[in-house]
Amino acid sequence: MRVYIGYSTSLQYWLSHGTDVSCYARQVHMTSLNNAAYTLTQLQSYELEELGLEATSARGWPDRARKGRAAKRPVPTGPAIHVLVPGKLDSNRLEGFERHCWTSRIPEHSFCRLDGDVYLSLPEFSFLQLAGVLNMQQLVLVGYWLCSSYRLNGTDLPLTVDPITTVAKLEEYLAGATGCYGASKARQALRWIVDGARSPLEADVAALASLPVRLGGYGLPRPAINYQIKASDFDAETLDRDDRTYFEIDLYWKGKRVGLEYDGAIHYEHERIRKDKRRLNCLLANGERILVVMYDQLNDADVRKALMNQLAKLLGVKRRKATSKEKDERDKLLGILFGNEFSL
Questions:
Q1: Residues of the chain with CATH 3.40.960
Q2: What percent of the chain stands above pLDDT 70?
């Protein structure tokens, strides 16, 4: 028997451990899950926690009323390890395990062997799986997590790391997943995901700006993140670091030469303030229009709203008054992005 880890458990593994060439070197192509461990006794026989697999919140289809009939037994609650089982089997929740029936075909490049008979869904397959259980706003945020270049490690500042995957890799994988459950929704989510965020706020603000109004966003064009603008010799002394020959803009709309930067606590230091002002003067003199918002201001709803309206004006995007339904979607999105109302 084999155990196939997926959904939020595999996602959490990749977010915690990252990927390297060995992950893809251990790829195994599965054509079915018929040999999947299924019973509680079978699943408990694997020492999954020792492999770095964490129980995550239950998502999917716990043992609830099916076909008009009430559940026959109490539903286990609490965090669970998510596993894939064949579509012909029951997906009732077990104590400590959430079983997901996978009825679609399994695309190539979907699993790697983690250890022994434990197989782990690769990041791209995890994204496809979650497209079937998350709403679009949550799925876009998961895509940003996978394609970002940071990791939170219990410190105030994000650690810079290699991205787990990229938008291009996700596109390539999903091209081979035609007909699979969630594939169409996953491809749609990629329209609003951008590579290269190096902090949660870069990802959050990019998602808020570019998601369509019907999904709670402001419907602006998708920006580039940490875009590089080459500096002239005359401007070189205003660069952030001595080893750079370019300015780097947090969010940037190349066609409009419009950018957005937010300043964290380090930018409050007197000398840094002086250097930042000189840097912005250089960008302005070279035709770049850069808006600046302070880190703490992004927690202010009025500041966020004004900022998005200012960006829309600079980008030439005409905005209309949101409907009551769209306002509800915006509140939902703000809760997901800034209110910590979504986690694994």
A1: 219-318
A2: 86
Token representation of residue 238: 């205003």
State residue 156's pLDDT score.
62
For residue 297, the model assigns a pLDDT of 79
Helix, strand, coil shares, percent, the chain, to 5: 40, 20, 40
Fold of 219-318: Endonuclease; Chain A (3.40.960)
* Per-residue pLDDT, 245: 77
As a whole number of angstroms, the distance between CA 24 and CA 145 comes to: 19
DSSP 134: S
Q: Decide which of 77 and 16 is more confident.
A: 16
The pLDDT assigned to 137 comes to: 96
Both structure tokens of 43: 């699943």
* Burial of 251 (C-beta count, 10 Å sphere; 0-12/13-18/19+): buried
- Distance between terminal CA atoms of the chain? 27
13 DSSP 8-state letter: H
8 A C-beta contact, residue 82 and residue 60:
yes
Task: Tell me what the pLDDT averaged over the chain comes to.
Answer: 87
Instruction: Report the 10 Å Cβ neighbour count for 95.
Output: 11
Backbone angles phi, psi at 125, to 5 degrees: -70, -35
Q: What is the pLDDT of residues 105-143, one digit of tens each?
A: 999 999 999 999 999 999 999 999 999 999 999 999 999
Phi, psi for 106 (deg, rounded to 5): -100, 115
Contact between 101 and 89 under an 8 Å Cβ cutoff? The reply is yes
> Strand 118-121 vs strand 150-151: parallel, antiparallel, or unpaired?
unpaired
